[in-house]
Amino acid sequence: MRLSLFSALSVLALGLIHVEAGKVNTVRIDPKKNLVCLILPPPGKLIGDTEQDGHVQCTDGSPQLLPSNFFIWKKFQSNSNYVQAWGMMNDKSVGLRSDDGGGQYDTHRDSGVNKAQGYSVFVELLEPDSKRWCIRFCPKGKEHYCNMGKSTYGCEGALGITDWSASSK
Question: What is the annotated signal peptide range for this record (predicted)?
Answer without folding.
Answer: 1-21
